[in-house]
Design goal:
The protein is 56% helix and 7% strand. The protein is an alpha+beta fold and 548 residues long. A five-stranded mixed β-sheet has the order 1-2-8-5-3. It is globular. The structure holds protoporphyrin IX containing FE. The site of protoporphyrin IX containing FE has 21 residues, from α8, α16 and α21. Its main location: membrane. One of its GO terms (molecular function) is heme binding. Keywords: Heme, Iron, Membrane, Metal-binding, Monooxygenase, Oxidoreductase, Transmembrane, Transmembrane helix.
């Protein structure tokens, strides 16, 4: 047959294949874990088509040209079909929101490439209101009822695809299976129970004393709060999770694991809304740039948990005790590979949740106390006469806890994320039904600053938490630790390690911004990278015996 003869119908076939691939395949189910298969499948299809064309076209250039036309027809049809369907026929097409957001989630990823999703979400809320379509199959709810609808007791939601980020590892915190979550949560709850906490408290106090001493060694030199609070929160994580003393605060040394964690989260942050891109990178480019840091972070956590498993405990209670108990209890029901991957995923979750969250709030707290020294004075008046070993006494101090709550409100460590998928009955909000199987999200950073929920929403007013409750218009709009059956199990430990650090440091020091420090830096350079990463804060801590 002469070249080209009988091939005039091929572009039409390619267009039909594109439409069929969309409606018959990609419109259904989840594809985020199959990136490499999709690429391989298309390459195979391209190869087979090229082989077919060589039977008609002798010249390779002609074959290449024809293949390019067919690929353009196929992909053009596939993406046109997706666009038309998403804009006009999708179940969410009647909801308003940015049009390009409805077409592709890449639009969102593009806008948050600078890791400032929290500000982008705020803009969307201001422009589009409280219930907004922010993706092809995604709704964002800027509404105080949303927290309870997403996570409250009795909800039907499941976690969204983002939680597959540590695959093939798993953990109770990341599993998307409701039963597995319920079962696994029990072991976390034991590791963070009041009984375990009584064991951790004196050890945390010891680390805060180290922190105070470490700050003292800086003298009049500015303290980089990010650095010092990273040491402190990493030491706490080591002590509570592995019963291990990393000794960073005393030795003033940054553990490489901190750098790997920060760089890994910087990668995961902007890709949070298109997790398939990150997963593709993890699988195809494991040794490149920040993907390498991601794998290093995973291996650090995994290796530490394995060495804790081998060496046994130090006679101390630690969270690993309970994770290892779960590992051993499941020996008869699960394969070794499954159990190993679960233990590894649990270690990753615990390291990130246990170290990075408290660090962010502590940095923000010192910014607020330096900016508004009257609040530092009020807290000092409270803590000067309190026994810091008494956790209940610290929990009862109104201004100290007001400062912590107000910092958690204005700088929530988990600023966005916590995405869910609506259950079989959908989700009813303000008499509006969001259909089943839709991704729903509620960015806490925006909720915590909505004018309809808070009086003077952007102002730091710790009194709103005790003597001026009229400044809180709707308490449901405060959820730094999430809610319901998925609320943060580390809440008590986190609050205690914040209270005791602020109490002891304010007993020992007065704090002020470092000379020449630009106060806007923390806000200007703040990033939303799974957890909040405040911009640099530099302060000077003056011993109080010298300033009194
Ligand atoms: C100020 C510090 C902290 C804040 C603001 C915070 C906030 C949160 C939030 C918002 C969630 C829900 C996340 C989601 O649904 O994806 C969460 C879950 C969780 N957090 Fe925290 N967290 C903090 C510290 C900690 C610490 C120190 C630990 C202990 C290691 C911890 C352990 C957990 C666990 C186990 C969960 C999962 C609960 C579940 O899924 O059932 N958190 N946290």
């Amino acid at each position: 047959m002469a070249p080209g003869q009988g091939q005039q119908h091929l572009p039409i076939l390619a267009i039909a294949a594109g439409v069929v691939a969309h409606h018959g395949l990609f419109r259904h189910g989840e594809w985020h874990l199959h990136g490499p298969h999709i690429i391989a499948g298309h390459l195979a299809l391209g190869g087979a088509t090229a082989y077919f064309l060589t039977r008609f076209d002798d010249a390779p250039a002609d074959v290449f040209g024809r293949l390019a036309v067919l690929a353009a027809a196929y992909f053009g049809a596939l993406f046109s079909s997706m666009t038309i369907y998403r804009l006009f026929f999708h179940r969410l097409s009647s909801f308003h929101g940015p049009k390009l957001a409805a077409v592709t989630k890449l639009w969102h990823v593009w806008h948050v490439a600078d890791s400032r999703n929290f500000l982008f979400q705020e803009k969307i809320h201001k422009k589009y209101g409280t219930i907004v379509r922010t993706g092809p199959n995604e709704m964002t709810l800027f509404h105080p009822a949303a927290i309870d609808l997403l996570d409250g007791f009795g909800n039907e939601t499941t976690r969204d695809v983002w939680y597959d980020i540590v695959r093939p590892r798993s953990s109770a915190v990341f599993t998307r299976d409701r039963l597995e979550h319920k079962e696994g949560r029990k072991f976390w709850a034991q590791g963070l129970s009041s009984k375990a906490m009584n064991d951790y408290y004196p050890r945390i106090t010891g680390l805060v004393r180290d922190l105070s001493h470490c700050i003292g060694t800086f003298g009049a030199t500015p303290v980089d709060l990010d650095q010092v609070m990273s040491w402190y929160s990493w030491d706490i994580m080591g002590e509570v999770l592995f019963g291990e003393d990393f000794n960073l605060t005393r030795s003033r040394v940054t553990h490489p694991g901190i750098k790997h964690r920060d760089r890994a989260l910087a990668l995961a942050g902007p890709l949070g809304d298109a997790i398939w891109i990150a997963l593709l990178g993890f699988q195809l480019l494991p040794s490149v740039g920040r993907v390498k840091d991601w794998h290093r972070m995973l291996h650090f956590c995994e290796d530490h948990m394995l060495s804790r498993l081998k060496r046994g405990g130090n006679g101390k209670i630690d969270m690993a005790t309970y994770f290892i108990e779960e590992y051993e209890n499941t020996a008869k029901t699960k394969t070794k590979t499954t159990r190993d991957l679960h233990l590894s995923g649990t270690a990753v979750t615990a390291v990130v949740a246990g170290s990075d969250t408290t660090r962010a709030v502590l940095i923000a707290i010192w910014w607020f106390l330096s900016k508004f020294p009257e609040h530092a004075k009020k807290v000092q008046a409270e803590v000067d006469n309190v026994n810091t070993n008494d956790a209940n006494a610290l929990a009862a101090l109104p201004h100290l806890n007001g400062v912590i709550n107000e910092s958690l409100r204005l700088v929530p460590p988990v600023m966005t994320g916590g995405n869910r998928i609506t259950g079989p009955n959908g989700m009813l909000i303000d008499d509006i039904l969001i259909p089943p199987g839709v991704k729903v999200t509620c960015p806490k950073y925006v909720l915590h600053r909505m004018e309809s929920m808070w009086v003077q929403p952007n102002d730091f007013i710790p009194e709103r938490w005790y003597s001026r409750p009229e400044l809180i218009l709707d308490k449901r709009a405060f959820a730094p630790f999430s809610a319901g059956a998925r609320y943060c199990l580390g809440k008590n430990m986190a609050l205690h390690s914040l209270r005791i650090a602020v109490a002891i440091l304010l007993q020992d020091y007065d704090v002020d911004f470092a000379p020449g420090y630009d106060e806007e830096t923390m806000w200007r350079d703040m990033r939303d990278q799974v957890t909040c990463q405040p911009g640099a804060v530099h302060c000077v801590f003056r011993p109080r015996k010298l300033t009194k």
